[in-house]
Amino acid sequence: MNFSSHPVFISLTPVFLLIGVGFLAGRLQWIRGDAIKDLSNLVFLVLIPALLFRTMSAVRFEQLDLTPVAAYFLAAVGLLVLSIAWRGFNCRSVVMALAGVFSNMVMIGITLVELAYGKRGLVTLLTLVSVHALILLTLGSVMLELAAARETRRAGGEPPHLMATAMSAIKGALIHPIPLPILTGLLFAQTGWSLPSVIDKPLQLLGSAFGPLALVLVGVSLARTPMHGHWGPALWIAASKNLLLPLLVGLSAWGFGITGLPLTVMVVAAALPIGANVFLFAQRYQVVQELTTASMGISTGLALFTLSVVMLIMSWLNPVVITG
User: Fold this and answer.
1) Do 274 and 102 contact (CB within 8 A), yes or no?
2) 132: closest CA among 231, 12, 245?
3) Which of 90, 208, 320, 322 is the most exposed place for a label (fewest CB within 10 A)?
4) Domain covering 3-317, topology
5) Which has the closest alpha carbon to 144: 97, 79, 212, 197?
6) Cα angle vertex 217, ends 212, 223, to 5°?
7) In angstroms, rounded to a whole number, what is the distance separating the alpha carbons of residues 304 and 310?
């Protein structure tokens, strides 16, 4: 078989070439650190909402299947809890465990899944994306506050109020440029109306700009990621994220009787590298910040190989129609 003509290779190549372009631009200082925040705001506040709302504005509730999402979170939450138990219950271990289960579904996953599995695959992924941050980040917030309260008590201080923290986390996850346009797009779709072309066309153009710019931005961020001195622990976290989680998600989905495209999309979503939101927790709680950054960089770099392997295995075990 000519691997260069395989649909998996055809889908992955543009994704990692664009990340490579961003990495080169970051190394050569064509895009400097001061510009990264503005580019991130453009991607997250303008381009992503346009893409997500337009995609979901044509999806009826009866087209959605939540069983794959349930299978995904059974595996992800299970691995999160086991990872914390293995390392010990403290803020450091919660952040490291979260890094081992939180996928970069938006910046990398959306473009990759649409290239590889078309619109049907993207709808399956966006159903997962709509609750991914809400569930994992809220759970992570609660666990971190519990761990922080435990550490504060041991130090003789006054712990924060847990319920207020949990409600703040839920509110922040809902009023967010990712779940909000997905949910509003779904609600619009239930009206049976169609977007007027004068609105649909600009949304289409903005959504088209998301993929290339988001991937280039991943590369720029990767170029500025320090990894010195953290290779060993970071490799373990990256292995958990890139290899162990997709294996567990695949087994969980198999147990639920899920087959076809939903199974493949869930496993590929689990195999995506570590998402950037994990670093926000490391920064907020002032723990393992350099290790988290290094893990994200190594996980993204390894994904060139691990994602290829996972997608190839899924194409052999669970053949689906892949669109280029």
Assistant:
1) yes
2) 245
3) 208
4) Na+/H+ antiporter like fold (1.20.1530)
5) 97
6) 130
7) 11
How many CB atoms sit inside 10 A of residue 243's CB?
16
Low-confidence ranges of the chain (pLDDT < 70): 1-7, 63, 134, 153-179, 320-324
Which residues have CB under 8 Å from 192's CB, separation 6+? none
Residue environment code for 285-298, b if the CB has 16+ CB neighbours within 10 A, otherwise e: bebbeebbbbbbbb
- Tokens in use for 275? 């998402």
Q: What is the CA radius of gyration of the chain?
A: 19
Can you give the pTM of this predicted structure?
Answer: 0.81
Backbone φ and ψ of 82, nearest 5°: -65, -40
Distance between CA atoms of residues 76 and 275, nearest Å: 14
Residues contacting residue 168 through CB under 8 Å, at least 6 positions apart: 141
At residue 274, what are phi and psi to the nearest 5 degrees? -65, 135
